[in-house]
Amino acid sequence: MVLLLAGGLQLTSWKARQLCRCRAVPAFRQELNRGARNAWRHGMRLGADCALCCSGLMAILLVTGVMNLGTMALVTVGITAERLFPEPERAARGQVLSSWLQGFS
What we know:
Elements: H1 2-9, H2 13-23, H3 29-32, H4 36-53, H5 55-64, H6 69-84, H7 88-104
Helix pairs in contact: 1-5, 1-7, 2-4, 5-6, 6-7
């Protein structure tokens, strides 16, 4: 059931917004030079955005087994594809089929 929900999450507009936030280059680079506090805040914001973006894939990892190396490799490829492909929404939608096939089997 979790695999089906995680696959469905990949199709939502919320996921598309999270991908944009995770991939966005910060426009406020000058603020990062103003001290450790701003750099820390930026790192926490970036980490939260990326964690939310990958929440569906992380749920798949937790359900299928964190110590399963095959699953770890597939989730790593999925997260990398979402992060680096020119069209991340396509990569996210491509992962839906895999997730749903696992969920139905």
